[in-house]
Amino acid sequence: xxxxxxxxxxxxxxxTVDHAAPxxxxxxRSAPRPAGRRPDHVQRARRxxxxxxxxxxxxxxxxxxxxxxxxxxxxxxxxxxxAPAVVLTVLLHARGGLYRPAPLAAASDxxxxxxxxxxxxxxxxxxxxxxxxxxxxxxxxxxxxxxxGHVVLATAxxxxxxxxxxxxxxxxxxxxxxxxxxxxxxxxxxxxxxxxQYGLRPVGVVSTDARAADATPGxxxxxxxxxxxxxxxxxxxxxxxxxxxxxxxxxxxPRTAGVATLLRAHGCTLWIADDEQAxxxxxxxxxxxxxxxxxxxxxxRRLDPPPARTVATRAKRVLDLLLVVPALxxxxxxxxxCAAAVRLADGPGVVFRQERVGRDGRPFTLLKFRTLRPADxxxxxxxxxxxxxxxMSRVGSLLRRSSLDELPQLWNVxxxxxxxxxxxxxxxxxxxxxxxxxPGYARRHRxxxxxxxxxxxxxxxxxxxxxxxxxxxxxxxxxxTLWQDVRILVRTxxxxxxxxxx
Length: 502
Known about the structure:
Layout: H1 40-70, H2 75-95, H3 111-132, H4 140-171, E1 174-180, H5 182-194, E2 200-207, E3 225-226, H6 229-239, E4 243-246, H7 254-265, E5 269-274, E6 294-295, E7 298-302, H8 311-346, E8 351-357, E9 363-369, H9 377-382, H10 394-402, H11 409-415, E10 419-421, H12 428-437, E11 450-452, H13 454-457, H14 466-478, H15 482-499
Parallel strand pairs: 1-2, 1-4, 2-3, 4-5, 10-11
Antiparallel strand pairs: 5-7, 6-7, 8-9
Helix pairs in contact: 1-2, 1-4, 2-3, 3-4, 8-10, 8-11
């Protein structure tokens, strides 16, 4: 299960590396997590978008109910259905993103989603009323009239709200950062500057190039190019940045993933825009999002943060906890024996700590039993393989061959840094290097990293192809099931018993 020996082309890669490694932007250690409380100015902006639209929906429902009652429908039935229908409508619209309009949004963009959710809200309310009052249910004709009237009036009301919103944003556009390659960022920034109707005022380009390039002569206005975490944070604070437009998905590039995490921590709303349609199709379309939204031809989608807890992630986490807790208890004698052996053979410093890249580009500290003491921190971060290193003692060699050096990672799983099954984590230096060489490598980070994985049970460990590993990892993520995790764990245990580790 060890990943310290690997290969970029099938043969062992060179251990000679350039000291100027591409930068990976980590999430700020002092900044709040994206799931935490948003900054006050972002909360006010969100309420400024949502409250008028929600009020228009509620008013439309009330007017539709009044009109239906005036047309002869029993007032008691209509009023009994009205309150739960309004509550369900607001909840469904909020869940579907209908209160977070895209730049230059129009009411007609969301009409299909508006109709579906409104009909569901009134239908569920009518069913609830019928269950409580079986002899006094709402007629189908009255229900259809309520849904139709609500949708028509809500569309008109939302249209008025969006028109006023566009006028306000044109007068006072929101400070925006553009994230991507320097040349593309300047091009998109120029578009936003020349078309203020989108309400996005570019104030800087966050470069994801290995080395930021200067703006081309035709790029006006010249925007400052931001590279470091400090520059980005300063720009967000000084300009009260509320929006950021990415030209690549976070999964496609570790630097973009790090910047996205940093901006989300500051409460920015993220959009992804692309003029060649190469990036946006990778972002799944969700109901309630206008499929034709664009920024002057740059296809545009809101980039919501991945849900912190979905049914799938809950199930995967539950499986991890159900297995790792008893595993730690059962393995405690082995852990103590390994620790004692390392201490006696190699001296103090039993546990080896190393920074690795986890889900969404977040760094974490991976734990292992020390099998070799590196010369310095630079060697630890950039030396690819120590499998045949003469400095390794017999105890270290035995731990590596048997994969017992990986046992402390059970604690990483318990903490939530890792999962039992997933793509193996790598060091930031090699993540940046492999992401530039292999297009699909960075996409491995859209799922929690693991102690073992599909690539490992197919023999892709040690000095094997990085391209093959990335392909197996991405296939595992795309076809993930809980049963697949169980099968991989069984195959891993079987492989260790047969071959004595890696």
